[in-house]
Design a protein that fits this description.
By secondary structure, the chain is an alpha+beta fold. The chain has one domain (2-85): Alpha-Beta Plaits, CATH 3.30.70.100. It has helices at residues 13-22, 24-29, 56-63, 66-74; strands at 2-10, 36-39, 46-54, 77-85. A hairpin with a 6-residue loop joins strand 2 and strand 3 (46-54). It starts with a strand and ends in an 8-residue tail after the last strand.
Length: 93
Amino acid sequence: MATAIIEHWLEDYDRWLKVYTEHGPARVAAGLAGATVNQDVNDPNHAYVIKKDADLAAFKAFMDHPELKELMQAAGVKDIRVHIIGEGSVHDG
């Protein structure tokens, strides 16, 4: 499993968050429940959705769905960048 980080540039955070929240049942149905939403502290219209232990096949199928692209456009998403990272480890010395 990996962690998916979806970086969003938004027209309006509150508008996007409302649509994102309403779309929750679709994420649950796709096996992608439990993601966290994080707002950039320096830019309120820059947000990150972080899904730990993501099933990458399910994640890719969800992200590639044409309806999602239309929904993101309607929610005011200007751009996204997807980062997939592996499990990390602590190296304190």
